[in-house]
C-alpha cells in the first residue's frame, strides 16, 4: 500500500464537497460494489405447509377474492423483510381461491407461474382459454396476457384451492418496465376450448402456420401426470445424476428454450434414499415439494421437508438434497433464463 | 367495492401474526408491486463538465491511481443517493489517469465501457491487447477479462486523461452474479499488437476460423473518426429522423447484436438547429455530449448542455433533444439489451 | 430488339471456338437458366398400394435382407426415370423386412425417415436405442448415426413389415457431401432401453443438462397414437383451415424447428367431405395416406387415393385435397427446411 | 455374401416388370446413391486470364449488352459440359460491359456476386442505390432485388470493364425455386446516393431502427482497399495459418453470418514464398487471383496461376496453395453457407 498523499480528514472534506454535485468516490466502495463472490441479502428459508396452512385458510375469512383482487400471502425472504421478494429477483406467494369465487381479470408485464398445491375445482383463464388446475400442474400466465381465476361452486364439488405463485416482480421493478391494466369485466370471454393449446403444441407437433408472437411457451398448462410419467420412466431405466437425481426442465416446444422468458422451471425426482452431492449456482432457486419427505442442506442450514413445503436457496449457497424412504418429487424455479441470456450464470458441483 | 368481511383492526392483527412466519398480504401492496406505469426512483439529472472538472482534477492530488485501484468519481442519481447508481441498473463514473500512472489489472463479471472525454496519452489493455484511448473512442472491457489502464509519461506527451465509465454494477448486484479477482502483477502481459482486433473484425470481415467464445464484441475500440464519418455522411445524404436525428447503434460484427451483452451503446448526430420530437422508452439512458451545444427536455426538466456534459433520462420519462447553431454529437448507453433479451422493452413516439 | 451486330453463323463459329476453352455464351441459355417460374422435370404421380404391394412382397422371395442390405423398391418420379428420385431433392422407397430378418448396421450423411405402412414385429435401432415400429409412427434416422432394422421371428408374432423410406439422397448428391460406412457387426449394441429418448424429450421437458449435439430431433419415434389424438382434438374443437384441414408439423422439441435438418414432416387431417382450396408452393412434397379415401388434384392430374398410397406434388404445381365420407389422415414430407434456411420458400393460396 | 435366392435373370425380369410401375431396386444402386466418399463430376480446372481475355473482348463485337441482357461467358466445368456450372451448385462467368452500355434491369431469385477484375467506369445499381465498381471490390446482388449495370461513356473515361459473376443458379435449379422478372425500363430509378449503405452498415454501427428484412448483407459493395488493408495488417503482425495464410470471411454486419445466404466469400493473403499445407473440404470452391503468382495443387492437378486467373477446387479434392516471390491475394467463393445451415460441411487438414 502506498502512503496516502492526503489525510483521511482531507478526504472526508472532499467527499462532502463533491456529494453536493451528486458524486462519490468509487475507491471507498469498490470492494462492496464489485465483490469477490456474490454477497446477497437473500438467506436460506423454509415455509412448512403445516405451519402456514391455517393462515392461508384464515385469509379466506378475512377478505374476499374480489376485494383482494388476488388473495395471496407473500413468502418474504427473512433477509429482505418488507420487500415482497423471496430472492432478489423473484416473488413467491400462496394463493387461495374458494368455491364460487372469481379473482378478477387483469394483465401486467410481470410473468407468473402457478404451481398447484391442493384442492380441486379451480380453473384459470389466459388469453381466451380456460384450463382446470390440478395438484402438480405447472401453469403459466405469460407477460401482458389477460388472466382471471375462478372456482366452481361447492355444490359442483369445488374445494378451497391453494397454489404457489411465482413472479418476476422484483426484477421488473429494478428494470423499471412494469405496466398493468384491469379488464373491464371480472372474467374475460372464453374463445377456445379447454385443452386447445395443449392439443396444438403439446404433442411434439405444432400447427403448420404457427408463428411465435410471444417469448412464452404456447402450452400454458403442463399437466402433472405427463411430467410424473417421464420422471418415473427415467428413474427406473436411466442413470441417476449424483447431484440432481432425475431433473427435467420444462420447455417451450416452439423454441426449445425455457417455458418463460424470465423464469426457469424444473421438476426433479430423488429416488428413495438418494443422498445428493453438493453444488452451488448463481441462480437463487425456490423449491416446492410435491411428493415425499427428505432433508436439504443450504449453506449452514439444514431443513427437513415434506409435501407442499416451500424452501429457497440463495445465489452461490451450497445445496444438497436427500430423500427419505420413498421417492421425492420437487418443483423449482429460478431466474436462470435471465442469467443465461446475459452470459452470467456460474455453477459449481462438488465432486 | 364489496363490504369488507373483517375490520381493518382484525386485519392488522392477522398481518402481525403472519409476519412472524415471514408472510405478508399481497392485497395491501399489489398496486405498488405491479404498477400501472414504471414508477422509478431514478430522476432526470445533468452533470456539467465545467462544474465537475475541478473536482476530478483534485482527485489526482487526493489519491494515487495505485491506491485507488480505480480513481473514479461516481455520478450518483440524485434520486438514489448512496447507491452508486445513475439508473436502477447502471453505473456511471468519471475516471482520471495521470501521466505515468497505472490502474492495476483485475477482472470482474461486470461489463464496462469507457467513453473518452479529454486528454491524450492513456491506453487500456484488455485480454493481452493494448489500445490507445482518444477522445470520442468507445472502448469495451468485456465481462471477466483482465484489464488495466495506463498513461505515458509527461515527458512523452502524456496528459491527464478523463473518461466516462459505464458499468452494469447495479444489475449484477441484483442478479447476485458478481465475482472479481486481482491480477498478480500491476499490468498483464501484452500478446497482440495494438490494432490487431480491429484488423481482424473491424472491416466487415472475420477470420475464417473465428468462433465466438464471448457475448461481447471482439472489437474493443470503436474509434471516433469512423463513427463520426458515418454520421456526417448520413446527415448530409439521407433523411434525418424527427426524433433521433441520425442515430447509430454500435454492433458486434460477429453477431450483429449489441456490442455488449448488458449495455447498448449509441452515437447520434443532431444537425444544427434540429428540434427533436418527444419520445419515451423503458430503457433509462445515460448521454454524454461529444460536440455542440443544445437543450434537452426530460420529464418536467429542461437542461442546456455542452461538450463533455453527462445527463440521464429515467425509464418512461418523455425526452426531446434540440441542437444549437452547430451539429451536436451524443454518445449514449442503456440496459436495452437486457430488456430486449427478456421481451420487456416498450417505446412510444409522440407524433 | 436491336439489330444483331453479327450473323448467327459468326456467332456459332465463336461459340465453337470458346467451347474449347470451356466457355459458353450466357445469352443463349439465360432464359432456361434463370426461368420466370420453377420449371421442373418432376411430374405429379401416384403409387397405389394395391398396385405395388405384390411386387413388394415378391422382393422378399427375390433377395434376402442381408444380401440387399436394404430391401427397398425405389419410387421413381416418372419424369426422372433412372435417377432414383421422387422429387429433384428427395428420395422415396418402400422397404420390406420379413420376420427374423436383419438389415445390417451402417451409417451415412443422408438423413432418413421411416413412415410405417403395415405389419407388426419390426424394430429399428439408432445410436444405441431400439424402438418398435407401428403403423403410422414417424421414425427418424439422423445423419451419420449407426442404424439397423430387424423383425422378430414368426413364432413370436413377427409379420412382414413395410414402411416408406424418405431420404435426402439427391440433395446430398448435388451438394457432394455424402459419406457412408458399414458397422463391423450386423447389429449395433443396445445401450439405452426402448422409450428412453421419448421419456427424456417427448413430454415438453428436457433433461436439465441436455446440450444439442445434433441438428435432428432427439425424439426418434413420434408414435401415431399421440399425433392422431392431437389431430382428432383439433378437428373437433378448432377451426379447420380451408386449404390444409388440420395440419401439424413435427418439431424438434429442443429447438422448435423441423424434426430433421433437410426434411420437413407433417401430418394432417381432412374431415369427412372436406373440399380443400387450391394452393401451390416451391417445396415439392411426397404424401402417404394413413386413413380414409379422397381425391387430389395436382396440376392437370386428378388422383383418387386410399390408405397406404403414395403421391407426389411437384414444385409450384397447384394442389387441392378432398376427403371422402370419412376423415382422411395424410403424412407428408418435403425439403422445406432447406428452402426456409436459405430464404427460398414461396407459397401461394388461391382464395 | 449369402447365396442369392434367385438367379440374376429372374431378377432382371422382375426389375423390368416393376419399372413399369416406376419402381426400381435400391440394392442395385445403393453404393452409388450412398457413396463412401463424395464422388463428383466436378473436376479441377483453371481459366488463365491471358487465354480468355481475347474471347471476352471479342464478345463485345459479337453482341450488344442490350441484346445479350447480360454479355457473359460462362466458365463451364470440363466435367459437366453443357450444364452452365463450375461446381455442382455454383455458376461462374466473366461479364463484359463497354463504355456507354447498359445491361438492362431485372430481378431473380438467384443470388449474384460480382468480383471486379479489370477496367474503370462501370457501376451497378441494386434496389435503388448505385455503386462504382473498382478492381478487387466484392459486390452483391441479393436475391429478388432489381439490378442493372452500366458504364460511363468513353469521353468520360469509361473503359471496358470485366468482372467475375458468381451465382447459385444450379442450386436454385435443383431446388426448383427460381423466379425471374424484367423491369419495365432499362435502368431502375436511383433513390439513395452512392455510399449510403456503406455509411449505414459499414462502420461497425447500424441505424438504431434497422430491422433485417433480407438474408443478405445490407452492405453491397465491400471495397478492395478496406479488405486489402486488413490482410496486410494481419500478415505483418499476426501468426499466419499454415494452410490458409491469412484468410478472412466477408460478413453480414447485421448478423455476423455470411454476406450471402447461399454463397460464402473469402479473401486471403499468402505471404511471398508461402508453401501451404494440404487440406480438403466438402464445399467445392472457385478462386480468383487478385495479386501475385503462385502454384496450386488440386487433387492430381498442378496449376500455375497469375493475376485474374480463375480456378476451381471440387468437393473433397486435396488442395494446397503456394505463393511466388511476392504476396498473393485470392478471392474465393463456395456454397459453404448451405452446407453449414444443413449441418453437412466436412473439412480435413493434413498436418
Helix content of chain A: 10-25%
Shape of chain A: globular
| Quaternary form | homotetramer
Spans of chain A of 5+ residues with little confidence (pLDDT < 50)?
A: none
Structural class of chain A comes to alpha+beta
SS elements, strand count of chain A: 24
CATH superfamily of chain A: Jelly Rolls
Q: What's the gyration radius of chain A in Å? A: 23 Å
> Tell me, what is the CATH class of chain A?
Mainly Beta
Whole-number count of domains of chain A = 1
What is the level-2 CATH architecture name of chain A? Sandwich
Question: Helical stretch count of chain A?
Answer: 8
pLDDT averaged over residues of chain A = 96
Largest interface (C-beta under 8 Å): C-D, 98 and 98 residues
- Order of strands in the sheet with the most strands of chain A? 2-21-18-23-16-15
The proportion of strand residues of chain A reads 25-35%
For the sheet with most strands of chain A, the description reads: 6 strands, antiparallel
- CATH topological fold name of chain A: Jelly Rolls
State the separation between the terminal residues of chain A, measured CA to CA. Answer: 39 Å
Amino acid at each position: 500500500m502506498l502512503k496516502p498523499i492526503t489525510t483521511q480528514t482531507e478526504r472526508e472534506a472532499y467527499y462532502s464537497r463533491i456529494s453536493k454535485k451528486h458524486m462519490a468516490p468509487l475507491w471507498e466502495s469498490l470492494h462492496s460494489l464489485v465483490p469477490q463472490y456474490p454477497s446477497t441479502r437473500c438467506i436460506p428459508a423454509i415455509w412448512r405447509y403445516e405451519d402456514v396452512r391455517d393462515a392461508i385458510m384464515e385469509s379466506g375469512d378475512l377478505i374476499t377474492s374480489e376485494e383482494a383482487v388476488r388473495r395471496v400471502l407473500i413468502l418474504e425472504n427473512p433477509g429482505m423483510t418488507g420487500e415482497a421478494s423471496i430472492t432478489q429477483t423473484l416473488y413467491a406467494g400462496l394463493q387461495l381461491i374458494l368455491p364460487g369465487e372469481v379473482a378478477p381479470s387483469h394483465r401486467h408485464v410481470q410473468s407468473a407461474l402457478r404451481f398447484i398445491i391442493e384442492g380441486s375445482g379451480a380453473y384459470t383463464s389466459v388469453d381466451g382459454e380456460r384450463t382446470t388446475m390440478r395438484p402438480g400442474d405447472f401453469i403459466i400466465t405469460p407477460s401482458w396476457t389477460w388472466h382471471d381465476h375462478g372456482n366452481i361452486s361447492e355444490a359442483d364439488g369445488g374445494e378451497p384451492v391453494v397454489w404457489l405463485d411465482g413472479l418476476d416482480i422484483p426484477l421488473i421493478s429494478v428494470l423499471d418496465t412494469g405496466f398493468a391494466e384491469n379488464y373491464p369485466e371480472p372474467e374475460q370471454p372464453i374463445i377456445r376450448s379447454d385443452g386447445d393449446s395443449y392439443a396444438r403444441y403439446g404433442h411434439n407437433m405444432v400447427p403448420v402456420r404457427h408463428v411465435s408472437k410471444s417469448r412464452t411457451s404456447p402450452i400454458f398448462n403442463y399437466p402433472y401426470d405427463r411430467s410424473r410419467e417421464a420422471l418415473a420412466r427415467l428413474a427406473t431405466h436411466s442413470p441417476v445424476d449424483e447431484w440432481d437425481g432425475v431433473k427435467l426442465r420444462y420447455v417451450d416446444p416452439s423454441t426449445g428454450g425455457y417455458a418463460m422468458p424470465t423464469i426457469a422451471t424444473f421438476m426433479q425426482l430423488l429416488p428413495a434414499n438418494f443422498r445428493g452431492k453438493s453444488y452451488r449456482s448463481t441462480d437463487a432457486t425456490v423449491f416446492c415439494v410435491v411428493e415425499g419427505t427428505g432433508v436439504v442442506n443450504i449453506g449452514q442450514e439444514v431443513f427437513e421437508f415434506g409435501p407442499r413445503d416451500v424452501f429457497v436457496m440463495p445465489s452461490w449457497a451450497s445445496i444438497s438434497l436427500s430423500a427419505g424412504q420413498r421417492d421425492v418429487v420437487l418443483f423449482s424455479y429460478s431466474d436462470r433464463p435471465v442469467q443465461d441470456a446475459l452470459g452470467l450464470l456460474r455453477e459449481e458441483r462438488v465432486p
